[in-house]
Amino acid sequence: MPLLRILNRKNFPATGFFLVAVIPMIVDVVFSITGIHTSTPITRVITGAFFGISMVWIIVPIFIEACIQIFTRNNNLSSDPGAVQYVRKTQ
């Protein structure tokens, strides 16, 4: 069961959600390059884990929608005689 959202919803997370997830990594790298803050393996792991966990909420809904479109494509293409059938019909 998903923690924060229903997986069969059609709307996808906004690109702002991606930016919120990537900003801590960018800040960590920029601060390390400019010398404001020394980046340690612990800060890299924390910011990378936050980004990786956040990407699940973006990638999983898109993946589920892609699978739905692929597996329901057979029903949508049945009226087009020249279309390639992805699912073999059983008799």
Helix and strand pattern: HHH
Number of strands: 0
Number of H/I helices: 3
Give the rounded overall mean pLDDT. Answer: 76
Percentage beta strand: under 5%
Poorly predicted ranges: none
Radius of gyration: 21 Å
Helix content: 55-70%
The backbone outline, from C-alpha atoms, is elongated
**Cα separation of the termini:** 36 Å
Which class of secondary structure composition applies to the elements? mainly alpha
Described by strand count, sense and barrel closure, the largest sheet is: none
Q: How would you describe this structure to a colleague?
A:
With about 90 residues, the chain is mainly α. It has a domain of about 45 residues. Helix content is about 60%, strand content about 0%. The protein has three helices and no strands. Helix 1 packs antiparallel against helix 2. It is elongated. The model has no long low-confidence stretch (mean pLDDT about 75).
SSE map:
Blueprint: H1 15-34, H2 41-71, H3 73-77
Helix pairs in contact: 1-2
What are the salient characteristics of this protein?
91 residues; mainly alpha
